[in-house]
Amino acid sequence: MAISRGIAALACLALLSAPSAARKSDRASATVNIDPSSQGPVQGIGIGGDDVVKMADQMMRDMLATPQLSNLRAPPQIIIDAEYFTNQSSQRINKDIITDRLRTSLNRASQGRFIFVARNRADMVAAERDAKRAGAVDVGTTGLTRAQAGADFRLSGNIASTEERNNRTGMVQRFTQITFEMVDLERGTIVWSNTYDIARASADDVVYR
Amino acid sequence: MRNFMLGAAAAALMLSSVAPAYAGDPAEKAAKEAAKAEQKRMKELRRQYGDGPYPDEIAAYVAQRPEPLRPAYQLLYTEGENVSVLNFERIGLAALQLGYYKDAEFALDQALSRIEAIYAKDAQAEKARALFHKESNKDYKGEPYERAMAYYYRGLLYLRAGDYENARASFDTAEFQDTVSEDETYQSDFALMNYMSGWASHCLGQDSRAKDAFAAAAKANPKLAAPDAGANTLFVAELGLAPIKAKGGAQNQMLVFQAPTAATENEVVFSVAGQVRSKAYSGEFHPLLASSVYEQATTRGGRPIQGILNGKAQFKSATDTVGAVSTAVGAALLESGLGSNNSGMANAGLAGMGFGLAMKLLSHAAKADADIRAWDNLPGAVYLAAARVPASSIKAAAAYRHDAAALELTGNPVMVASPDKCTIVWTRSRSALGITNPAPGIDAGVLRARAGNRIAAAKDKLFRTALVSDGAPSIAATPTALAR
């Protein structure tokens, strides 16, 4: 009787330990187009593509709604690039992806209320100006200026993060804060600022912990 | 008869309307024949290699890669997704040593993107837990020290490119990998990563943050003092050989580490030559041991998966014992039954032997083996020195010693990069090249089983497609000249 029970127990254990059948999620997946503003099938705990789209949209709307920027008598000249946008987080990232998105979105939405200075392309502009003045190329249709455009404001910002791990559950959590500040380039004051926060947690499968 | 004649005439008419066009257009005929031949060839390839990779695909992919890295790229292409992180890591390090920096960046980015992916509800991970499958069924991500080293090498490449922010992010994440240690004493004790993070902050001019990181490094390794404020050059030397993974325990269920004994070097001296205002400059720098990779591997403590492997091992042992006992008792009963003409006893003996055999088979089928796939071209330890080198356009060479006695060890070329105000000088005593065989611990049986599994084979096919379409920098990339 005892032997029979033992056999049954062992058989049960073996059956329980048997690998489960393949599920839908196990299948290979062909390339699919996904909405850039929504979370895709691959998710981590850091800044994702959807965060970039959402944060650029949120910052753009907020800047347009800020009277100190959008209600000036003459459209302010603004520099938005990654030069003063720092990454102090533990995520490797190409910062241009954030500032490029913000600049282009804002440029389209502001409809002339903001003028953007392409300081990151100053060398390109300088080369053309030199060529025009040297007579190597003809003057364009908008005339010549004394110098390249100066800026009234410049975007600065920072990406910072803090991470925690629960070794018992394997849960890893990261809080990422992206700060945006528009600095008055004459007075050094901050005329607009905002933050975008991301807090995510996940646990890898136990075999990877 | 009339109908037959009419039918034959119609058939002849139809044939005549097709045949002349076919015969009259050699290009079309050739195309059709080529398509047919290709169809036949593919059928034969599928018969021989299943879903691939096929020899011509492998050759085409490998031919586009730099010559010294081709064997490693071939392993990457043929071994598939399951060990891609390991293959990317090996390629990344070999490419870094050779000066193929684009290849190194590509390979390490690929490895890190997979390491960072969260494997929740993953079939391969589930399989690794299952009683009748080995742990090595899971896609390789490596142990925490291996993951940390992947971030470390990416950080080195960022330092080389002058991208100090992403370098720091890499070193910080490397250090975070070390927080999984079971024993708090060993959590965040990877002094190398703290120091490298501090150096990146130092190069950024962020002194406060640099100070914190250097303090954390000194806490883990008191010999690592913060560099002087004017330090502009970081010397990094990697000595020795990678920790060796082995299986331990009665059922091979334990992951144990062995220290390699083939490498004895434990000191390094950098000789630097350059020019200061048209005057010759020379200097010697003696890096200190920052972190031992072997210690990092061995101080992690228990792995959470160990509980699962122990359970598998217990099952394996228990079924083996039950099988042995049942077989022995059954044999005795059978013998006794046959001897006494007791058919009931003999039948019971036969049943016992059958049960024993079944238990033995179950025991044999259970797979408790620990995963010992290992990043084999890692170093054994990393040495660091930071100093102010007044010269520009410096050249550096490294000499290796064992307890102050010089060694006949040529070492490898030295990478010197001065992208900005900071210079990074990096080298290693042992070569990361010679990747012609699969990494140690790779289970050929697991890879074969993947090839026979429709889902896994499809994933590997997608992996190869992605490699070809988004692939590594092509052969056009040339290595940056390195000083020896």
How is the secondary structure organized here?
The complex is a heterodimer of chains A (209) and B (484).
Chain A: H1 2-17, H2 49-64, H3 67-70, E1 77-79, E2 85-87, H4 96-110, E3 115-116, H5 122-133, E4 153-166, E5 171-184, E6 190-203
Parallel strand pairs in A: 1-3, 1-4, 2-4
Antiparallel strand pairs in A: 4-5, 5-6
Helix pairs in contact in A: 2-4
Chain B: H1 2-24, H2 26-49, H3 55-63, H4 70-79, H5 84-98, H6 101-116, H7 123-129, H8 144-161, H9 164-177, H10 191-204, H11 207-220, E1 233-239, E2 244-248, E3 254-258, E4 267-276, E5 279-285, E6 288-292, H12 293-298, H13 305-339, H14 343-365, E7 381-387, E8 392-402, E9 405-406, E10 415-417, E11 423-428, H15 444-452, H16 454-469
Parallel strand pairs in B: 1-11
Antiparallel strand pairs in B: 1-7, 2-3, 4-5, 4-8, 6-7, 8-9, 10-11
- Roughly how much helix do the residues of chain A carry, as a percent range? 25-40%
* Unreliable sequence segments of chain A: 14-22
Topology of chain A as a string of helices (H) and strands (E) = HHHEEHEHEEE
The percentage of residues in β strands of chain A lies in 15-25%
What's the total number of strands of chain A? 6
Number of helices of chain B: 16
